[in-house]
Amino acid sequence: MQIETNTPIVKQKKTRNWKRWAIHLFPIPALLIFSIFIVYPLVAALSYSFYDWNGITRGAFVGLANFIDLFTLQPFSNMFWNAAKNNVVYFAVQMVVQNGIAFVLAFIIYKRIKGSEFLKIAYFLPRLLSVIVVGFLWKLILNPNFGALNVILGEFGMESLQKAWLGDPKTALMAIILVNCWFGIGFAMLIFLAGLQSIPKELVEAAKLDGANGANVITKIILPLMVPSIMIMTVLTFIQSFEAFELVYAMQGSQGEPYYSTDLLAVFFYRLAFGGSAAGDSTAVGLGSALAVVLFLFIATCTALLLKYMQKKQVEM
Amino acid sequence: MKQTLWTRPIYYIIAFAFATISLYPIVLMVLSSFKPSAEIFMNPLSFPKSFSLDTYRRLLEEVPFGTYFFNSVFVSVVSVLLILVTTSLAAFYIARYTFWWNNILFFFFLMGMMIPIKLGIVPLFILMKDLGLLNSLWSLIFMYTAGGIPLSILILTGFFRTMPVELEEAARMDGASDLRILWSVLIPLIRPALGTVMIINFISSWNDFFFPLIFITDEMKKTLPVGMLSLFGEYSADWGTLFAGLTLSSLPMIILFFVASKQFMDGLTAGAVK
């Protein structure tokens, strides 16, 4: 800033400078809170992973030892790969079942059937419940003795299908994923509906005039134009399934019962950080931080790749 | 598209069948809350024989439900207010001034939307301990405020950018300060966006279970979702009371939803669709 010699101008400049300076205060509160409670902990988690930890006190710098232990030291490495496998299943089933059904429902509502306002509300209502309420509610419904699901199956003469859904390692993970789908379908449906409604009507009309049949209109026009909302739901489902924790914790506890069949990476991470792992009740903060870093890098890389792919697709159209 | 005779009925069957799957568990939850446990075990699917409020009475008498409820209201309301104030200021700055660092600042905030903050929970726990905030509702308030900032800034910045600059210039000519322009000119105009921000953040802070699970151990400081956890521990055989607890903790959100269902649905999807 140049120093002015003419007095009246200096005075005017001063007030203007003050005003200019004051505006820089505006983003400070958000910046502070965001940096302290989001950015700092994530950066700190990275540095924590290079240290040995006893309980929650930091010990010596150990380099990559925590990462090596995570992948090779028993029982942790077994738990890691088991949880990772479950997480892949969780994501895949949710993509197909939740987003598949949501797409069909969105398409039906898009076709303007009667009662669509009611239907939208009905599909969306589960999303308003807390995940813990969803978990407990379904735990009661899936109860092997008195739960509504087995009772309904009995009423319809399908006793052979009655099961201890959450107690059997073969069905427990699938039961939890489907509960998660029940919770998420309404939201996915709204995203797809917004995508459908943004398709210009003229395009569909023109295709029909050119003699395209229903199947052709769907595969050649509607689906390609839906790519952005499909990709958004893919990214959101991906992030959500790889940090899924609450539902398993509410329904199967921090051990991912039965026999770790419902264990997920975030649940395993909780055990490492806050106790209750198979190696006694002690916490393993170093290992937990290493897992957090691995998970973080995995989610960030995959999300970035998905978003990049999405941008490319959009440009092509 | 050509309508064949059978497509419509199939649409209706699928649509209403799924509406049943969506709603039935919630209806079951509410109906069961009026039944004593014995009746739930004998006729889990039927309507209650008589509407008894006994389960609710027990819930309110034996569990500090009112305290949980008050804590949830306090935490949600204060964090939503903090989010509204901090993000309107920041979004106004980002949208209306063109310093070279503004885009960097914007993307710095947006990064927070892609990062699962749960993964920083160990350092957060230690940080809260050092700040003396463990077992305090303020630990939750700060978390929900920080967590809500990225999406709220994204929404508000978008809205501020659509406002005509002439309005502010006129006010500036009259000698209004930046703060006055924001408060008296722009805030009234972006009310719909503020409503969206309010709803998104209210839902997520009201329903959150993860942070109180870790930060709060004192029974009197628990919010509703973690309160549920101790309820389930104590009353594992008393299904009537459990259903009453689930119903009561979901009721405020469901009532609010019926008052403003469209805003709720727009609000929750605002982040994704932009």
Automatic annotation (TrEMBL), chain A:
Record bears the keyword Transport: yes
Transmembrane segments: 21-43, 88-109, 121-141, 172-196, 217-239, 284-307
Record-level GO cellular component terms: plasma membrane
Pfam families, sorted: BPD_transp_1 (PF00528)
Cellular compartment(s): Cell membrane
ABC transmembrane type-1 domain location: 84-306
Keyword Transcription: no
Membrane topology: Multi-pass membrane protein
GO biological process: transmembrane transport
Recorded family membership: Belongs to the binding-protein-dependent transport system permease family.
Protein name in the entry: ABC transporter permease
Automatic annotation (TrEMBL), chain B:
Keyword entries, A-Z: Cell membrane, Membrane, Transmembrane, Transmembrane helix, Transport
Transmembrane spans: 12-34, 68-92, 104-126, 138-160, 181-203, 239-260
Protein name: Carbohydrate ABC transporter permease
Compartments (UniProt record): Cell membrane
GO cellular component: plasma membrane
ABC transmembrane type-1 domain sequence ranges: 69-260
Keyword Transmembrane attached: yes
Recorded topology in the membrane: Multi-pass membrane protein
